[in-house]
Structure to design on (138 residues):
């Protein structure tokens, strides 16, 4: 790492000041044109140390939540035919994570996608959950 020396004025005297290099720019955002753009394996953790594994495939959404001593649960859904961004409508086939889930579709949006990171926002009735996933190494 190289230090940048910039003259600074201190009490009428010129002295050399060292500043750290500027931070690297954030990764470029990618546009999501279809469900296939975000296909792959993703992983995340939350404040409660729950682990989330998300599999997005052609016409498939499967999220497994490892809740530690509470065990694991799964949400499995399929995008409804013709679902397009920015929000994809999904038909839920299995949800053993939320016993009080009401019948009806679930909506998934991806507010941020860099290729290696994916922010997913799940709207299920009036509940909105937002989580950041990293691409799993395969």
């Amino acid at each position: 790492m190289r230090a940048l020396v910039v003259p600074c004025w201190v009490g009428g005297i010129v002295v050399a000041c060292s500043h750290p290099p500027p931070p690297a720019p954030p990764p470029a955002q990618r546009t999501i044109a279809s469900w296939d753009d975000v296909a792959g394996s993703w992983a995340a953790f939350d404040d409660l140390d729950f682990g989330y594994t998300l599999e997005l495939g052609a016409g498939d959404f499967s999220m497994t939540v490892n809740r530690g001593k509470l065990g694991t649960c799964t949400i499995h859904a399929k995008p409804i035919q013709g679902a397009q961004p920015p929000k994809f409508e999904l038909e839920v086939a299995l949800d053993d994570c939320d016993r009080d889930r009401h019948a009806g579709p679930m909506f998934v949006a991806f507010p941020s996608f860099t290729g290696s990171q994916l922010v997913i926002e799940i709207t299920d009735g009036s509940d909105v959950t937002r989580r950041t996933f990293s691409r799993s190494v395969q």
